[in-house]
Design brief:
By secondary structure, the protein is an alpha/beta fold. Helix 6 runs parallel beside helix 8. The radius of gyration is 17 Å and the shape is globular. The protein has a seven-stranded mixed β-sheet with strand order 3-2-1-4-5-7-6, with helices on both faces. Helices cover 33% and strands 20% of the residues. The protein has one domain: Vaccinia Virus protein VP39 (Rossmann fold, 3-Layer(aba) Sandwich), CATH 3.40.50.150. Pfam families: Methyltransf_11 (PF08241). Keywords: Methyltransferase, Transferase. One of its GO terms (molecular function) is S-adenosylmethionine-dependent methyltransferase activity. This is Methyltransferase. InterPro entries: Methyltransf_11, SAM-dependent_MTases_sf.
Length: 249
């Protein structure tokens, strides 16, 4: 079985077990968003600045690896034309369930973002990409595909793990791994993930993640850092994630 199939099945299991990123927004949150009271997350705790999102009324928005009915229902409530791509059956089902509950249309595409995106050039005005590229080995092709399907002047908003989470033990008190963390190369990394039911995860450098966007042609507008939200690293205020706002010229 290829590693993305393993990850899709793992994500389905996490959703059934109450995973944070698989919990759909409530009807009350949807109604508040319609009134202009909303926030979305791309990283664990810090909301995306509204300036980054802008006015999405009538805009074409892609949620890339963004299933689970968290970001996209908010975009729909704000008047966007929404598409979501995710490889998890349960995450896709949640998107459809919430859209039916709230009465909006969404195009749900179950697919693997490591493959060429099934969209024409210039298909979207905004892409939302919550933390998810830690589940793929090569990130640069994804950035190139995002650049291709985004219209000129469009924004690409993404959340990314910085790699710090992969060097520490489960108590976050000891450095036990070097980088990169790659279960396709390291048997030790693979066995650790299997023991923790962690799917297949990969560390990525800022050079890969920010540099990869720049190499694809994006212009970086802004960024912020975030923590895990709990645990020892969070208690010490050690940032472990970043979010970036990039624009296609």
């Amino acid at each position: 079985m290829d590693y993305q199939s393993i990850n899709a099945q793992t994500t389905d299991r996490w959703v059934d077990d109450g995973w944070q990123w698989g919990e759909p927004i409530s009807h009350e949150d949807f109604e508040r968003a319609k009134r202009g009271d909303w926030d979305i997350l791309l990283t664990p705790t810090k909301p995306v600045p509204h300036e980054w999102v802008g006015d999405v009324r009538g805009k074409r928005v892609l949620g890339l690896a963004s299933g689970g009915a968290q970001q996209m229902p908010i975009m729909a409530a704000l008047g966007a034309q929404c598409t979501v791509l995710d490889y998890s059956t349960r995450q896709c089902e949640s998107e459809l369930e919430v859209s039916q509950r709230e009465g909006y249309d969404i195009n749900v595409v179950q697919a693997d973002m490591t493959q060429p995106l099934p969209f024409a050039d210039d298909s979207f005005d905004l892409i939302l990409h919550p933390v998810s590229n830690c589940y793929i080995e090569q990130v640069e092709p994804v950035f190139r595909e995002c650049f291709r399907v985004l219209s000129s002047g469009g924004s690409f908003l993404g959340g990314y793990d910085t790699g710090v989470n992969y060097i520490v033990d489960s108590t976050e008190t000891k450095i036990v791994h070097g980088l990169p963390f790659n279960p396709l190369v390291s048997e030790e990394d693979r066995l650790e993930l299997e023991q923790d039911d962690g799917g297949m995860q990969f560390s990525h450098t800022l050079e890969e993640q920010i540099g990869g966007q720049l190499n694809a042609g994006f212009v970086l507008r802004s960024l912020y850092e975030d923590t895990n939200g709990d645990g020892r690293l969070h208690e010490l205020s050690i940032p472990t994630f970043i979010a970036t706002w990039s624009v296609k010229p």
